[in-house]
Design a protein that fits this description.
By secondary structure, this protein is α+β, with helices and mostly antiparallel strands. It is 17% helix and 44% strand.
Length: 128
Amino acid sequence: MSDRVVHFEVPFDDGDRARSFYKEIFGWQITEMPEMDYTMVMSGPSGDTGPTEPGYINGGMASKQTIPASGPVLTIGVDDIDATLIKIEKTGGSRLGDKVPVGDMGFAAYFKDTEGNVLGLWQNAPQG
């Protein structure tokens, strides 16, 4: 999984409007998660562990107050978020907050690249 785009996020001002738009236009499966203030998005056929057909990436939507970006965010899967954030800072990027747990699924963090773009990092939780 390492170093691939594994997730996307779409920030919104109006959650109901955004969910309705993407569901109507693209047929995405939308699942609200009010306890996390987040909306899960399945862009194609999916099972418990994610997409079931090649070519699909699932994602999410959240308010612009939750996502530190004004536009969509690509999220890259890494083996170690902490080590990756150190490399990002050493090469001219910057971290946007700390690594945070996402339920028992894994960890997430945001960073800004050298061009000012906001991207995300994802690290799966240890299995076992």
